[in-house]
Design a protein that fits this description.
The structure is a single chain. It contains four helices and nine strands; from the N terminus they run αββαββββαβββα. Helix content is about 20%, strand content about 30%. The chain is α/β, with parallel strands linked by helices. It has a five-stranded mixed sheet with strand order 1-2-5-4-3. The protein has one domain: Beta Polymerase, domain 2 (2-Layer Sandwich).
């Protein structure tokens, strides 16, 4: 039995009823839980002597707009002592709020703000939940699958006004005359001049 399988068994024995699914894939442990158990599971994975997942590497979300539980939340944890990663996930519906991890992992602050800004997922008891990547007046959430690919407004910095301005999108394309002749054969006007 490998070290990874031993670790998976320890985690399963500690978190018995809180784990919906556990599997080893790509040399990593994947856990699926209910969102209500998030804080308990994360706290145990960080503080337990046999797990020691003391670093939160990433938090992200995946959008499945056709599902009732639209978003899949994914947490990537690292144990330096065991040299192992664990990937924790669960599903939530669109307007569901989830607890923040900032008291357990302070680095979660910026990651949760990015998720709020890009997906619109809200975190309860977050110390500073506001937009971080888009502008204050930005409408919508860019990483949702239903976000429009082209907008009606564009943002640019105006040197005249010394501030960021919003303007209607201008999709101009001037008329272009392309010469599709082979570059090896040359164009017609060059051929005509060489004949003279």
């Amino acid at each position: 039995m490998s070290h990874l399988e031993d670790l998976e068994k320890k985690i399963n024995s500690e978190l018995t009823t809180r784990i919906k699914e556990s599997k080893i894939k790509h040399n990593q442990i994947y856990l699926t839980i209910n969102y209500e158990d998030l804080l308990d599971v994360i706290f145990l994975l960080k503080t337990n002597k046999s797990t020691k997942f003391r670093q939160l590497i990433e938090i992200t979300a995946v959008d499945y707009p056709e599902n009732q539980k639209r978003f899949k939340m994914v947490y990537l944890l690292l144990s330096h002592e065991l040299n192992q990663r664990i990937i924790l996930s669960y599903y939530i519906s669109e307007n569901q709020q989830i607890p923040t991890l900032t008291k357990i992992y302070p680095s979660a602050n910026w990651m949760e703000r990015e998720i709020f800004d890009m997906y619109g997922i809200k975190f309860t008891d977050h110390p500073d939940l506001r937009r971080i990547l888009t502008d204050y007046n930005f409408e919508g959430y860019p990483l949702r699958k239903d976000f429009p690919l082209t907008g009606h407004n564009e943002v640019r910095y105006s040197e005249n006004e010394k501030k960021v301005v919003y303007e209607k999108v201008k999709l101009e394309q001037n008329y272009r005359n392309f010469d599709y002749e082979s570059p090896w054969e040359g164009t017609k006007y060059i051929k005509e001049e060489t004949k003279k």
